[in-house]
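Sequence, please.
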């Protein structure tokens, strides 16, 4: 499994501990989904301005968001299973972490778990789908010892 990390923002420091946690989230998400193999995922850290542009272009919503997930087309003929791309607004994640009373690391971990489930085919448009997705998010976060409201994680 390979996780490509691309920090395209300069407003918030992302240390090695956070990056290690996000790689653990990716691995745990694959385990929860019973996916084995040599998968590739990219995680890009951006500022609000960039994610706003992407949100407008791809979803028709002209405002910033916390995270976007772009699953790759299953029909691509590539030697390594590419799951897709995760784009996170670190500014928005920090704002939400402060609002919810937990660390940036915990917020980024949750956004990564949420996006990994999208890359694996989950959605939350219908209530039953939302319940399944939330349960899997909780399982991932709990197995990593990352709980809501924790300041240190």
């Amino acid at each position: 499994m390979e996780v490509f990390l691309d920090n395209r923002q300069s407003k918030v420091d992302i240390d090695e501990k956070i990056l290690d946690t996000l790689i653990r989230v990716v691995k745990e998400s694959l385990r929860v989904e019973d996916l084995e193999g040599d998968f590739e995922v990219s995680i890009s850290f951006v500022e609000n301005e960039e994610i706003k542009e992407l949100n407008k272009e791809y979803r028709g919503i002209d405002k910033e968001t916390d995270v976007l997930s772009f699953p790759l087309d299953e029909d691509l003929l590539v030697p390594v299973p590419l799951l897709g791309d995760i784009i996170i607004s670190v500014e928005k994640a920090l704002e939400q972490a402060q609002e919810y009373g937990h660390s940036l690391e915990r917020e980024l971990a949750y956004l990564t778990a949420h996006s990994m489930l999208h890359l694996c085919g989950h959605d939350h448009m219908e209530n039953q789908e939302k319940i399944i997705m939330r349960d899997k998010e909780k399982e991932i976060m709990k197995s990593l010892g990352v709980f809501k409201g924790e300041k240190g994680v």
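The two ends are 24 Å apart (CA to CA).
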